[in-house]
Design goal:
The protein is mainly alpha-helical. The protein has one domain. Helices cover 77% and strands 0% of the residues. It contains 7 helices and no strands. It is elongated and about 65 Å long.
Length: 149
């Protein structure tokens, strides 16, 4: 397919294929998080005059912070480990345009036969992913502290 390997649309197609899967994967945690909010809290907010957008931003979102953080971390890990669109659709794309870290590891291990590079690169990718997840935890913790104070 010339439109897929032209280098203009391959990144967008890979991102879109991942975005089709993410809502289904995150529906469960979000539904569980919403159901875990006691109805007493919703009733108390209505009695206090909290409706519509203010109810969502002041009641639901703060109580859903752990669930939102969980989904952000899972999405980050999922993007780093994204493999199938990059391999099956474009093979890494022209000029490595749709090559993800997982595709990079695969190519160096099995296509180029360089198993020695695969292990340190995998460790570096793991450390980068862990640091990004840690930063997400810090940002969410700081936001929760700002809301309390």
């Amino acid at each position: 397919m010339p439109w897929l390997v032209s280098g203009k649309l391959d990144e967008g197609i890979c991102i879109h294929s991942y975005n089709l899967a993410v809502p289904g994967l995150q529906h469960g945690p979000h539904a569980g998080g919403l159901q875990s909010i006691p109805s007493v809290i919703h009733d108390a907010a209505r009695v206090d005059g909290c409706t519509g957008v203010s109810h969502f931003t002041r009641i639901v979102v703060p109580l859903m912070r752990p669930t939102i953080l969980f989904c952000f971390v899972l999405s980050t890990i999922g993007v780093v480990n994204l493999f199938y669109p990059g391999i099956y659709l474009t093979g890494g794309g022209p000029l490595y345009s749709s090559e993800t870290p997982s595709v990079f590891l695969y190519n160096y291990a099995f296509q180029y036969g360089n198993l020695g590079l695969r292990r340190p690169a995998g460790i570096i990718i793991f450390v980068i992913t862990a640091v990004v997840a840690w930063m997400q935890f810090r940002v969410f913790k700081r936001g929760a502290q700002a809301e309390e104070g």
